[in-house]
Design goal:
This protein has 13 helices and 19 strands. The protein is α/β, with parallel strands linked by helices and 454 residues long. The chain binds 5'-deoxyadenosine (5AD) and iron/sulfur cluster.
Length: 454
Amino acid sequence: MLERYEATARLREINGKQNKSYAVLTFGCQQNEHDSEIISGVLEECGFLPSDINDADVIIFNTCAVRETAEEKVIGKIGALKALKYKKKDLVIGIGGCMTAIEKTADYIFKTFPFVSFVFGTNSVSSLPSLVLNAVLGKRQNGAPDDEIIPEDLPAIRREGYRADISVMYGCNNFCSYCIVPYTRGREKSREPEAIISEAKRAIAGGAMEIMLLGQNVNSYGKGLSSPVTFAKLLDRIASLDGDFRIRFMTSHPKDATDELLEVMAKHEKICKHLHLPVQCGSDRVLLDMNRRYDVKKYLSIINKARALMPDITLSSDIIVGFPTETEEDFEGTLSLCREVEYDSLFTFIYSRRSGTRAAEMVPVSTEKEIHGRFDRLVSLQNEISRRKNEALVGKSLRVLVTGISETDSEMLAARSEGNRIVHFKGSPLQKGSFVNVKITSAKTWSLFGEQEI
Ligand code: 5AD
Ligand code: SF4
């Protein structure tokens, strides 16, 4: 494989004579969204210009493998690319991300779709110029070597100038028994704090109003560094930087959520008082089978401490319904935990069997019908709680960051509160990316409505 710089230079030379373009289609989580910003940066460095998928000369899919439905969606969309390739013979198609990080799936995609030029994993984005160059020269390629060290000089094209996603670490060591991520993203690797802080400084100087620190398990940040540092210390340093911006972070694993983290959150106005702390299930027995390494008591003690330090904190969580060993009684534990915590919002998933994980070997004890029934009960409980909590905000004033025009009503702006609630109000599109105080006038289950305060 050619070195990145050499391949980039060759592509720039080729593209210099023609206006070649690229499109990246992203599936899955915020980490993937951010990886796509880097994929875009690398392609633009090679001289490709952004374009619509139908006009692009290079199409990259950044895939998700977390649940079967996500994979099925990707496979369907890859199949649909055949028509584009038929019309444009020299179209380059690359499939990357979590699906193709699994060798078996990568082989399947490479063999099933001969019009795919190359497949690559989550840790080989720096090989992209070389993969694209080979494809332009007519050579197909199944995979590229993983980067041993985190490449710090890859450029990123931020989707939204007002917000900056910054990865603090990659990979995961937890091996929750249902989860494919440790297999798709490899072992935990933390970036050096200085690299993260300079990226944050550059983003703030460039106009970012919101910094989102990303990692599969941010609370175990810093363990493998030559001078270990905690995530709380990193957060403290970023929150101490000058400027009018706010900070979010995700995802926190309850087993690693420390008092130090909560104290730093409480100390800094710039850190959003919002904690996404996935519980996954409210039964100790299932948590053990899930290999989560905490129990309900420990989880609730973190929640109580967070609320004692930050009474207005917003809480959200991920919950899996229908884990193979989950019985009706276990599920009732989940309902009762949700009643007790009263999350502001919840991401609910039906368990999806992922081949290669430990849970894939477990025999399901409940039927699909029972699982779907549980899922609906959990969603209706949460809807009731979310609605009640949103209604309690009517009459209050919230400081929100405007994210753009509302997707549901083009006359309205959409914004996010510190607690990550969606707030709609009338204003000018020019306000995108600025902080505004909004008085809440009405509430729905998923969003709030209000008027700008002058
Ligand atoms: N099935 C269903 N949900 C899953 N998640 C991870 N793996 C699976 C799976 N196999 C959920 C977890 C995690 C979120 C990102 O996705 O709740 O926190
Ligand atoms: Fe998956 Fe668990 Fe790692 Fe989260 S902490 S990415 S759920 S293995």
